[in-house]
Amino acid sequence: MKTELDHLADLAGRGRISRRDFLGRTAALGVSAALATTLAGKAFAQSPVKGGILKAGLQGGESTNSLDPALNLSQVTFSFGKQWGEYLVRLTPDNKLVNLIAEDIGASKDAKTWTIKIRDGIEFHNGKTVGAEDVAATIERHADEKSKSGALGILKNIKGVKASGKEVIFTLGDADADFPYLMADYHLVIQPNGGKDNPNAGISAGPYKVTVNQPGVRHGGERFANYWQGDKAGHADQVEIVVINDATARLAALQGGQVHMINRVEPKVVDLVKRIPGVSIENASGKGYYPFNMFCDTAPFDSNDLRMALKLAMDRDEMLEKILRGYGSVGNDFPINEAYPLFTAIEQRKFDPEKAAALYKKSGHSGSILLRTSDVAFPGAVDAAQLYQQSAAKAGIKIEIKREPGDGYWSEVWNKQPFSLSYWGGRATQDQMYSTGYVSTADWNDTRFKRPEFDKMLFAARGELDQAKRKAIYHDMAVLMRDEGGLIVPFFNQFIDAAATSKISGFVKNPNGEMMDGYALGECWLNA
To answer: Angle at which helices 2-13 and 19-28 pack, to 10 degrees?
Structure first.
């Protein structure tokens, strides 16, 4: 009950729930009227304060970063995009959709035609009013086969986009009951004319206007005076992201007061951070996972015997204990966990060095296997590679580790090299997760898993409105990927941020992503 009360208090403090609703929902939890009134007094006293400069120190920035939302790849561009960008919809912490630029969303009975009504009175940073034409152009740009957008994979089912008055009409090739969830993808920032004129301009309708853009160094914005939800976000006069890829330096910046919040706190220092006066750990379980990616179409990983040997050579329990220190859960070599509504458990893979050795011998491969890692892949990624090297050695498999520099890792190593460490934040639905990274045509297919039968099952599940049948299809997809894919998932991680809560308020734990799913700078405020 404490968790639910905390959540209600957070909503109240951020102005997202009325006092009446707060009292009603606490009563439903069995809280006495007297206690509920006391809690309401405290919660609603935390109303947002305007002013000041709010700063975050984040890992995940590179000199090659761009403001083009289509190219958003790592944590810094993800979080900065949520400050200057505005979306059609967004996900709540309990995985529900909230309309933003979209005022209303409706579908035909066969779920092949979707109509989105655009809200009146929302203004771009350049003074232009957001219209249906801008929304249609945005989706057209990201869905173009020539696009380099990270959202291209989830938009391939769109066969037509048309603006008509205040509405945008989408025609799909196959039925898709989850279509509105796709619009919450963090690449799909609504831009004037869809960004076709200048995608790198950094102009949208979010709470902040871009004032500083120094890739790999820092990014900043000033409050947009005409932001349509100014009572709910954009509390600080200015926001700033300082790129700090080194974990020790990031923590020092928080402790020293140079920044108010940081991401990617390493699990091994969580207990230390908890002892820092005025600082709190903000951790949330969700859909994120830290994978070891093998290219299924590149030797020696084109042998499923070798891939299975490498999967069985992973001691997941030891990995969870020593790398995540329990801040996560064991993975099973497919990208879905119980955080997804239609998840079905399948037999958990265990460490089996003897069977791994036999399959490794059967594969015919000899010699070492090169694994690339970096500090920026995920917290503890270098240690994880070394721990895996030790467990694989028990199966007679020699892993050679190459530690890559952080700057350039996401542009030169991830999705370019055949065996490397990475991270995924998960997606709103199973369909979106598979469509983004594992369908054959996905640009972000970072394991080169390309199986026609898998694609066929994905498309069948997308159009299946019977939830029991859909769940059964997802089960079969998970088994196929676990047993034949190029994905090793040792664990699903918690998002572990830290905030100087003696100086700021409004931080809400969000299982959809770190830094309140990217919204922390826009929705937190400096204490008076």
So the answer is: 180
What is the distance between the alpha carbons of residues 296 and 307, in angstroms, rounded to a whole number? 8
| Secondary structure (3-state) at 96 | coil
Helix (H, G, I), strand (E, B) or coil at 107: strand
To the nearest 10 degrees (0 to 180), the angle between helices 430-437 and 452-463 is 150
- Amino acid identity for residue 130 in this structure: V
- Alpha carbon dihedral 390, 396, 397, 402, in 10-degree steps, equals 50
Place of tokens 């990217």: 518
Identity of residue 455: D
Which letter, b or e, does each residue of 338-359 get, where b requires 16 or more Cβ atoms within 10 Å of its Cβ? ebbebbeebeebebbbeebbbb
365: tokens are: 């491969």
pLDDT at residue 36 is higher than 70:
no
Which residues are bridge partners to 239 per DSSP?
Answer: 54, 221
Retrieve residue 216's tokens: 């790999």
Cis peptide before 300 (omega within 30 of 0): yes
Is 258 in contact with 389 (CB distance < 8 Å)? no
For the segment 200-214, the average pLDDT, to the nearest whole number, is 98
Q: Name the strand (E) or helix (H) holding 11.
A: helix 2-13
Q: Are 380 and 268 in contact (CB under 8 A)?
A: yes
Element (H, E) at 353: helix 353-363
Residue 467 exposed, middle or buried by CB count within 10 Å (0-12, 13-18, 19+): exposed
Q: Which is it for strands 218-223 and 208-214: parallel, antiparallel or unpaired?
A: antiparallel
For residue 134, count other CB atoms closer than 10 A to its CB.
25
Q: How many residues does the chain have?
A: 528
The overall pTM is greater than 0.70: yes
Element of type H or E holding 309: helix 304-312
- Among the residues of 423-464, which ranges form H helices? 430-437, 452-463
CB 412: neighbour CB atoms within 10 A?
15
Q: What is the pairing mode between strands 158-164 and 113-118? A: unpaired
Task: State the SS3 of 179-248.
Answer: HHHHCCCCCCCCCHHHHCCCCCCCCCCCCEEEEEEECCCEEEEEECCCCCCCCCCCCCCEEEEEECCCHH
- Overall average pLDDT of the 293-303 stretch: 98
The answer to whether the beta carbons of residues 225 and 505 sit under 8 Å apart is no
Contacts of residue 317, Cβ cutoff 8 Å, sequence gap at least 6: 330, 351
Q: Give the containing element (helix H, strand E) for 285.
A: strand 280-294
- The two beta strands, 167-172 and 113-118, are antiparallel
| Cα atoms found within 13 Å of the Cα of residue 339, Cβ hemisphere only | 29
Residue range 246-273: mean pLDDT, rounded: 96
Confidence of residue 41 (pLDDT cuts 50, 70, 90): low
Q: Which two tokens stand for residue 478?
A: 């998970």
Longest dimension (CA), the chain: 72
